[in-house]
Amino acid sequence: MADNHKKSDWLTYATYGYTYDVAQDQRSAGGVHDHEIRYSENGGWQTRIAQSNGRHTAYGPIEAVDDATGQAFYDTALQNLLPWMKQ
Length: 87
Prior knowledge:
It contains 1 helix and 5 strands. By secondary structure, it is an alpha+beta fold. The protein has a domain at 12-17 and 33-43 and 67-87. Strands 1, 2, 3, 4 and 5 form a 5-stranded antiparallel sheet that branches. A hairpin with a 5-residue loop joins strand 2 and strand 3 (45-52). It is globular, with a radius of gyration of 13 Å. The chain starts with 10 loop residues before the first strand and ends in a 7-residue tail after the last helix.
């Protein structure tokens, strides 16, 4: 099945329960933290945390990561995609 995602798309490589407010936005507090990865159009891998409680989503700061880490997170995100997301 082909993957239609571009490296510049934000993809989730890990999800954890909410532990602290990463986005300084209480509207999105109390849910989960989706750890996301993308390859910047300017070059280089970037991560961020999407904080969501099902009603509201807010994003933490974008941080750069090295090539090896970024590629590993991206590969994990691709493996975690649901079948319908790979159309």
